[in-house]
Every structure is written in C-alpha cells, then in structure tokens.
Specification:
three-stranded mixed sheet; 332 residues; Immunoglobulin-like; globular
Length: 332
C-alpha cells in the first residue's frame, strides 16, 4: 500500500459505510499534560499502538503514578505498526501513568494516560455507559492448505444504542463454538470508538489449530468509557470491488477500491480499515482488515487494497462489503 497507483479489476461493487474509531487509550503521540492525556480505568483493556519504520524487536512498558511498572512483552512491527493490549491493573495507582515503546536502539516513543476509577454509574458524570450490542454476525470456515487446522473469516456489526453518548474503548470477546459446545478458539478485539446511534463493522480472521467445524460464535461486549456524542470527519469509499484469490479463484482474495479524503481540510495521515462481507441476502459471510499509511491530501483519492482475512469466504457468496474506518489526520 505504497504511493504507486494500482489498477482495479472490477468484480462486485458495493456501497461502503464508514465509522470512526479514536481510542481514548490508544497512543499515537505523547500528550504534554495530564489534562491532555487520554483517560483509562482500572481493569480496562487499553491499547498502545505506534507507527514505526523499524524492523527491530520492540518492547513496551508502563509505569504508574506510584512507580510500579508493568511490562507487556516484545513484538516485531507488522505493516509499519506495532501494538500491545494492556490490561490496567485493578489496583493501579490513580493519576498519570507513563508508557514507553523502544524498538532496537534508535526508535523510542512515549506518552501518558490518566488512570481513574469508573464512577458508580460507569459512564460520563456517573451516567450509565452506553449499550453496544451485536446486531448480527457471520463467518466462513475453510480447512488449512497446510497442516490439520482451519481458517475462519468472521464479521459482526456492533451497534451503539445510545442517541447521545459515544462508546469508547469497546472490548469484544469472541468464542468460536463447536457442535459439542466446546470452544475451538477465542479472540479479543478493542474497538476504539462506536459513535452514538451508529454501527461499527468488525471483520477479521483467525487460524484454528484443529479443523473442527464451528457452528456459532459467542460474543461478549463491554464498553470501557463514554463521551458526549461528537461529530467527526470521515473519508469515504468508492468503486469498491471484491476480487478472487490468485491461487484459488473460488475464494475471496481481497477487497479493493478508492478511499476519498473529501470531508476534512487536513491531510489523512493513516487509516485502519475493518471490512465485513455480505451475501446477496445481507447475511454476513466473513471479514478482513487493511491499513493505509500513505498521506492523502484533502480533496484527493487513492487506491486501497484490503488483503487480510478473506480467503475462507467462497467468492460466490460475497456480494458486497461494508467498511468502517479509523482515520488519523495531520495535527489530530
């Protein structure tokens, strides 16, 4: 997904729906004061996510207000980004916590959170947290080409039922259930923001160690915090196509199209895309992801390629795609 324009092969066009995710607990730049720092709560799953061109092993750590440290392990960057999900201890010291990311000896990033306790109502000003529900879900399973496992492409729609409260740091736990009732796998996701009275399309895939058919998903959703509903600039999508896998054209290989920066005067620095695939009846059949790092000036457009997570979905079942986007604009 560099700066070279790529031709698009048309197979299926679709209308794309966009939603914004801006996590109160995701760090892209270091705040300069406690009042500017994102707020996290004890027990919350927070995310540290930084862009880096380094290929070295990266380590992240957190130091709380009382000096107690928390190490999160080492990871290698993928696609120009490295991220950790950090569970804030239930006894973490309240106040400013400092996080730090080091990759090799040259790349360093740091920032702060403000650790608080969720109020009695759980939400803003003690009000109840907004309710986020799963409107519907679906998946496609395919035996692995190598080994005895399987791959599952899945998608779901998260709907914020509140009319005036944005849901922040939404934690999603997904269990993959077999016919016997046993779990074959579990995956967790953090959705930075589900806007008031809106839907977030969450799509991705998972590899299973055992090729045991999945019959349903068990999904638990927990809202971390809330804010008064706000308006956001969102890019739009055009000329979206669903394309076959190159080595097995019976399955979906990627979702391509154009991303258009037509709602903000600022340059779009980067964006995370979450894609859900639907069949002709509107049933969810899978999903996937993509990341965009090439700057997109206001009023311009460029090709996006979403190539992760789709190859368990039979091409004949994939009629349209719904796309949610978490953009990062210059100076935002």
């Amino acid at each position: 997904m560099g700066g070279t324009a790529l031709p698009l092969r048309r197979l299926a066009s679709t209308a794309a729906v966009a939603a914004l995710g801006v996590t109160a607990a995701t760090a892209h730049a270091a705040p300069t004061s406690a009042t500017a720092a994102p707020t996290v709560h004890r027990g919350q799953a927070a995310t540290i996510s930084v862009a880096t061109r380094s290929h070295a092993v990266c380590a992240a750590s957190v130091q709380y207000a009382d000096g107690v440290g928390q190490d999160t392990g080492v990871k290698r960057p993928r696609g120009g980004r490295v991220a950790w999900v950090v569970r804030i201890p239930t006894n973490a010291a309240l106040g400013v916590a400092h996080w730090r990311v080091v990759c090799g000896g040259a790349f360093r990033r740091s920032g702060t959170w403000v650790v608080t306790v969720v109020g009695s109502g759980g939400g803003r000003n003690g009000l109840p947290l907004p309710r986020v529900v799963v409107d519907r879900y679906g998946f496609s399973e395919r035996p692995s080409q190598v080994g005895s496992g399987a791959n599952v492409s899945y998608g779901l729609f998260l709907r914020n039922t509140s009319q005036n409260e944005d849901a922040l740091n939404v934690y999603v736990l997904i269990n993959f259930v077999t016919a016997s009732g046993a779990l074959n796998a579990t995956v967790t996701k953090n959705v930075d923001l589900v806007q008031a009275n809106s839907v977030w399309a969450l799509g991705d895939s998972i590899g299973l160690r055992a090729n045991v058919p999945i019959v349903k998903l068990e999904i638990t959703v927990k809202v971390g915090s809330a804010q008064k509903a706000q308006s956001y600039a969102l890019p739009h999508f055009a000329n979206v196509s669903i394309l076959p896998e190159s080595y097995d054209p019976g399955y979906v290989g990627e979702v391509d199209g154009e991303i258009v920066n037509d709602s903000s005067p600022q340059t779009l620095d980067s964006a995370n895309l979450s894609v859900v695939l639907l069949d002709a009846s509107g049933n969810i059949v899978g999903g996937g992801t993509a990341m965009i790092f090439s700057p997109l000036p206001s009023g311009s457009r460029m090709v996006f390629l979403a190539q992760q997570g789709f190859n368990s979905v039979p091409l004949e079942k994939a009629a349209s795609a719904v796309i949610s986007v978490a953009p990062k604009y210059a100076n935002s």
